[in-house]
């Protein structure tokens, strides 16, 4: 990185420069570097999208006309990665109409060609400054929310910070939020943070786990019941929707919600009213809904085990939490915090992680994500008698580490011996068995739906199921 005048903001994160003309790109790069910015270059939309995925640019500067794809595509991709990422577009002479459409799509600013380097630098510095102020504001808001009791979300990885930023945006609105992510990634934690960060923070946060409550009881849990609604209903009971009035209702594991109840939830979302079980008076509630699932709702919609209209209503503001194994660096941050927390809880004196223990933690794949890491550290703190946690205290199985190693070829586990016919047959049979098992799982064991998913007749599915001995 070249050094520049102290008055300009120096980027820690690079400027992504998307321009196909080599001479112009070199000129702009030079001007930016002179001011202390580091620059990554792309020549078309595909290259730009790849850069957006692998690095976290502070600002994107893109030509609108590109040899393949266009600047609007780059703009959209950037906003998808991070809605607050500043994007400045460059337009050819006379392309004011294009500039207007880019601004409408969320570009921060535009520059007419031929580009005046001073003007460019001004726009870039201003965009970076705006982004910095916005980030400071987020940190302050997080701190303020923490003081009010919001849970602390630990992690610095750009992918997580982006999710947190989305969470802040969602919190400010009243939109329904759908949190997705593998088990243990922090969906419930994020739901609580969302509530605490928003204007409903002083209202109730009511959670219900749709998977933990038997199907028959879920309806009365959600909507309550009137006295005498069924045998044993000796008094009126308010449901969670009522309890969450002026607050947030967290529907955890929404993928497990039976179809019959899905339509009732949809109605509340649309009309904001419902009746208690056995009741006739419509009740009006003011509830913000947050739902979470670790299932693939898309494929459940395809299998017709999840209503598409409810899915669309819920995913007004989808937030996907990345798995821990993709958040390099966060494992050790979380591990240090957890060691500290459990050490204090257990009244142990100073306790640290040895270098070898940290390396083992970082090499592990964490299929159970943050929850697994938290449990692992808790156990290690209990087991460790000295002042340093060693790999032996962690009880990490190497199998999971192997599974995470990107170099491992899954075909190595498959028996390809014998003739070509024999090898092919074994692979096909195994693929068939796995596809059927998976479809049955996605369809909650409903054979007809599983057959639909696989686009085969139910008879063939039954026959295959017997053949493969799938229970
Ligand atoms: N980024 C984080 N910082 C601090 N703690 C975290 C973080 N992510 C998760 N945790 C902790 O990890 C545990 C698991 O998180 P949580 O219960 O929210 O996950 P989940 O996605 O709801 O999991 P599941 O799908 O299994 O229900 C909780 O104790 C939570 O506080
Ligand atoms: Mg959960």
Radius of gyration: 27 Å
Summed up, the domain count is 4
How widely separated are the two ends? 62 Å
Question: If you average the pLDDT, what whole number results?
Answer: 87
CATH C-level class of the largest domain: Alpha Beta
The name of the CATH topology of the largest domain is: Rossmann fold
The ligands bound in this entry are: adenosine-5'-triphosphate, magnesium ion
Largest sheet: 5 strands, parallel
Class inferred from helices and paired strands? alpha/beta
Query: Which residues sit in consecutive blocks of at least 5 with pLDDT less than 50?
Result: 1-11, 400-405
Q: Spatial order of the strands in the main sheet?
A: 2-1-3-4-5
Shape: globular
How many helical elements? 20
CATH 2nd-level architecture of the largest domain: 3-Layer(aba) Sandwich
Number of strands: 16
Fourth CATH level, the homologous superfamily of the largest domain: P-loop containing nucleotide triphosphate hydrolases
Beta-strand content = 5-15%
Fraction in helix: 40-55%
Your description of this structure?
There is one protein chain. Residues 1-11 and 400-405 have low confidence and may be disordered. The longest helix is centred in the first third of the chain and has 31 residues, at 117-147. The N and C termini lie far apart (62 Å). Helix 19 (447-454) crosses helix 20 (458-467). The chain has 471 residues and is of the alpha/beta class. The chain folds into 4 domains: 15-133, Response regulator (Rossmann fold), CATH 3.40.50; 158-320, 3-Layer(aba) Sandwich (Rossmann fold); 327-404, Helicase, Ruva Protein, domain 3 (Orthogonal Bundle), CATH 1.10.8.60; 414-467. The protein has a 5-stranded parallel β-sheet, with helices on both faces. A 5-stranded parallel β-sheet has the order 7-10-13-6-14. The protein is built from 20 helices and 16 strands. The protein has helices at residues 22-34, 45-54, 71-81, 96-104, 117-147, 158-172, 187-197, 215-223, 240-243, 259-271, 297-302, 308-314, 330-345, 355-363, 369-383, 391-394, 398-404, 420-442, 447-454, 458-467; strands at residues 15-18, 39-42, 59-63, 87-91, 109-112, 177-180, 205-209, 224-225, 237-238, 248-252, 273-274, 283-284, 288-293, 317-320, 352-353, 388-389. The structure holds adenosine-5'-triphosphate and magnesium ion (MG). Magnesium ion is lined by residues 187-188, 252.
């Amino acid at each position: 990185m070249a050094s520049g005048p102290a008055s300009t903001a120096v980027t820690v994160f690079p400027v992504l420069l998307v321009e196909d003309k080599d001479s112009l790109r070199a000129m702009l790069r030079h001007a930016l570097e002179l001011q202390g910015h580091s620059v990554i270059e792309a020549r078309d939309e595909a290259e730009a999208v790849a850069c957006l995925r692998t690095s976290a640019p502070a600002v994107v500067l893109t030509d609108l006309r590109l040899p393949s794809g266009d600047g609007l595509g780059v703009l959209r991709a950037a906003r998808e990665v991070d809605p607050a990422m500043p994007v400045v577009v460059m337009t050819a002479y006379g392309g004011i109409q294009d500039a207007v459409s880019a601004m409408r799509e969320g570009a921060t600013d535009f520059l007419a060609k031929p580009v005046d380097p001073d003007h460019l630098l001004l726009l870039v510095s201003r965009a970076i400054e705006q982004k910095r102020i916005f980030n400071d504001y987020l940190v302050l808001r997080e701190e303020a929310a923490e003081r009010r009791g919001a849970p602390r979300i630990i992690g610095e990885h750009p992918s997580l910070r982006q999710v947190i930023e989305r969470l802040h945006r969602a919190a400010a609105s009243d939109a329904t939020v759908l949190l997705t992510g593998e088990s243990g990634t922090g969906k419930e934690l994020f739901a609580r943070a969302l509530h605490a960060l928003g204007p409903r923070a002083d209202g109730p946060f009511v959670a219900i786990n749709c998977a933990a409550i038997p199907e028959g009881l879920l309806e009365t849990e959600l909507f309550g019941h009137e006295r005498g609604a069924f045998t044993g209903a000796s008094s009126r009971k308010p449901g969670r929707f009522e309890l969450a009035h002026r607050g947030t209702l967290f529907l955890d594991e929404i993928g497990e919600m039976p179809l019959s109840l899905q339509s009732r939830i949809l109605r509340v979302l649309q009309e904001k009213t419902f009746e208690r079980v056995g009741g006739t008076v419509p009740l009006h509630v003011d509830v913000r809904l947050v739902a979470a699932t670790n299932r693939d709702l898309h494929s459940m919609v395809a299998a017709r085990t999840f209503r598409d209209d409810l899915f669309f209503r819920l995913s007004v503001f989808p937030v996907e939490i990345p798995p821990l194994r993709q958040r390099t660096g966060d494992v050790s941050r979380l591990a240090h915090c957890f060691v500290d927390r459990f050490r204090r809880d257990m009244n142990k004196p100073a306790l640290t992680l040895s270098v070898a223990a940290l390396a083992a933690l970082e090499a592990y794949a964490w299929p159970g994500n943050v929850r697994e890491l938290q449990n692992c550290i808790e156990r290690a703190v209990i087991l460790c008698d000295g002042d340093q946690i060693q790999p032996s205290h962690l009880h990490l199985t190497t199998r999971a580490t192997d599974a995470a190693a990107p170099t491992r070829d899954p075909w190595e586990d498959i028996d390809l011996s014998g003739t070509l016919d024999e090898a092919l047959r074994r692979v096909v049979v195994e693929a068939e068995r796995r596809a059927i098992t998976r479809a049955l799982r996605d369809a909650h064991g409903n054979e007809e739906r599983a057959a639909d998913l696989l686009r085969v007749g139910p008879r063939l599915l039954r026959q295959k199921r017997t053949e493969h001995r799938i229970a």
